[in-house]
Amino acid sequence: MIVSPEGIQIDAVIFDFDGVIVDTEPLHHAAFQRTLEPLGLHFTWQEYVETYIGFDDRDAFRHAFSAKERALNQDTLRRLIDQKASVFNEVIRSGVTAYPGVVELIHLLHTNKMPLAICSGALRSDIEPILEMLKISEYFKIIVTADDVAASKPDPECYELTFQKLVSAHNHSFSKGTTIAIEDTPAGISAAKAAGLMVCAVTNSYPAARLEQATFVIESLTSFA
Predict the structure, then answer these.
(1) What structural domains does the chain harbor?
(2) pLDDT in tens, 92-140
């Protein structure tokens, strides 16, 4: 158990991935553009920030096609998801950067035997290579991704499943009321809160005013604990 700067008891921590552990959103945007531009589809960085952050790849492609009034069948959707994943893995080979304080925080929580998990709208194939690069993969035995759920955030399914896996792995030693999600987007906050969890929002992707539905908001994970 740890106590947050706001005096809140925390017995388990669930991290979002993109925008919380690593600054991969520009890399995802680039991968989407390389995949969509040959089809005459694209969206700007501003559109990505305003609309697409928080979507998993399925919903991002669906929205991109819908916005241009283009049809998208399941076979094409699967092909585009695979293509974008391949491009993304090419892009990250040049290296990724963890946000300030996050790797140190993960080490600290693990040392204190805090149950940890990742709940992300990214694909598992996007996440695992980066965890290896940052040398923190051993700390996350539970990872729930877009591969595991039918709907993306703000749907709470991903957080419900992550919490179930955490309590199962740790013999129900904590509750939703003492489990906190660390998020960077309004959609992520909505998903975690709808699942009954506390939320710490970090202003990596949005200003504090856009994250006010969280339990509390911090500028950096250097001040989480």
Answers:
(1) 2-23+96-223 (3.40.50.1000), 25-94 (1.10.150)
(2) 888 888 999 999 999 999 999 999 999 999 999 999 999 999 999 999 9
